[in-house]
Structures are given as structure tokens and as C-alpha cells.
Design goal:
Layout (H helix, E strand, L loop, with lengths): L3 E3 L5 E5 L5 E5 L5 E5 L4 E10 L5 E10 L2 E10 L5 E6 L13 E3 L5 E5 L9 E5 L5 E4 L4 E6 L5 E6 L3 E6 L5 E5 L12 E6 L5 E6 L4 E5 L5 E5 L7 E6 L5 E6 L3 E6 L5 E6 L5 E6 L6 E5 L4
Antiparallel strand pairs: 1-2, 2-3, 3-4, 5-6, 6-7, 7-8, 9-10, 10-11, 11-12, 13-14, 14-15, 15-16, 17-18, 18-19, 19-20, 21-22, 22-23, 23-24, 25-26
Amino acid sequence: FYPIAFSPTGKLLAAGSKGGVIKLLDAATGMEIRTFRFAGDYFSNLSIAFSPDGSMLAGFAEVSKGNERQTMLVIWDVVTGREIRAIELDCGLPSYQPASSLVFSPDGKYVAVGSQSWDKGKGGGVWEVASGEKVCAFDGHTISLAFSPNAELLATARKKEGVKLLEVPTGKEIRTLKITPPSGYEWDECDWVTFNPDGKFLATGSYFGVITLWEVTTGREVYRLTGHVPSAIRSLVFSPNGRRLVSTAFDNTLRVWEAATGNELRTLSHGVQFYENVAFSPDRKLLAYDTYGTC
């Protein structure tokens, strides 16, 4: 699965590709500007993210060096392609949600990663960008991450543990949101988290296809959407103005919802290939997506 990410200006698009190579493209023309590569051989689970000011691009993946495998976080200068920092992380394999297991805080001070490790303190964590120092760690398999727009909260989707809202940068737990399975199912878990642009609401997407909108301050469930049930949610993103919520799932559809009401506005189908990651350009004019096996 290859992740994609628009730069904050919308002029650049970063796209993962075969071999863990990250391509930097002109969003308007598709012309390749440069590529970024990890030192060593790429092995699996690539994630990418732009810094809020667009000056840096981060990559998170498992790479192999000789007979050893390492989980690496690398930050590059977007303009020059120079490697700014490379950190060998003391956590497990990167999460299987490539577009949401690596996120910068909106103020650019921190970067958070999610890991598949069940070991205590190795489910991912938060690192300070300037120093490369780890400021907090997560216990348990962390699938998806999202910072609130004011950078004060971090939503972490934990396998079998619901969604935990943490204080930044201390990691203190503020609230846990429990995922309710759809009718006829005995369990479910959160695979995706995303804040709306003003930070008042959090949307979650589950393994069995339920999308839930939560009020952040109270933890109140606003609505549940079951259009994708029973297919796992693969991506979930608000439009920059917060009016639309776009989701993809293993049911081979991309669905557009009215964020305020949960009304379904449009459904797109890609035949036998399922939609993977989606990303809005900042001006809302473009919606980029990739399908399984492409990009």
C-alpha cells in the first residue's frame, strides 16, 4: 500500500512507490521533481508526512541493513533533498495504516508514529523534531494517529483498546473512546482517526466499516455511519473547510459524506480494485487517491 501526501501549499505531492522510494511530484503536472530513499534496503510499511510549513518530509519504514531489520524515521529537506535527521526507533514494525501512522504536530515541534508492537512502551511514540529526543511512548499496538489542530491533543487508535486521547507532549491520557461493533458483530476496533479542521470533532473508522463522529470535549457520540459495513475502513479525511468527510474501504468504494449531518452525498466505485489512501489539496480543488497496486 503506497501512501500519498499533499504539501501544505498544495503545489507538491509526495507518493510512496515500489522499493520504498518516495517520489516528489508537481501536483499540477505530475512531473517528478526528486526522489527520497532510505539508507539500506526498504523492507515494508512505508509512511510519509509533510511538516506543517512544507519545508520537511518525513518517512517511517522498516528497512534492512545486512541481516538486521531496523525501524527508521528519516526527515529530509524538501527543497534540497538533504537528509536532516535519521532516527532508529525503539518500537516495532510500523502500523499497517500507512497514511496515518506518521504525523507532524500542527506547530511542527513533534512527530508521532504508530507501531504494531504489543510490548510495553513500544507501540510507537512522540519525538521532538529539533532534538530527535523521544518525549513519550505508547503501550500496545497503535494503528492510527492524529494531532488536534491546536497541537494540544493526540488521538491514538489502539488495537482492541479503542481510541485514547492524550495530552501533548506529556502523553497523559485524557479520555478513552470505546468502539461499538455494528449489529450482528461481537467486536470491532478503530483503524483510523482524524480531527475536523476546528478540532471540535473526531472521526473514527473501524475494522468492520463503521464511521463514528465524536465530540472531543465530552466524548459524546454524534452519529454512526454504516455504509461501508462490513468492510474495513482504509482512509478517512475531512475536507479543508470541514464540510465534507471522505472515506474509503475494502468494499471498493470511495464515499463522500456531509460532515455536519452524516448524509451520504456521493459514492464512487473502482471495480475490482479498492481505493486506498486519499488526500485533499489545501485549496479543496483536488482530491488525490491511490488504488491497491498503483501509484
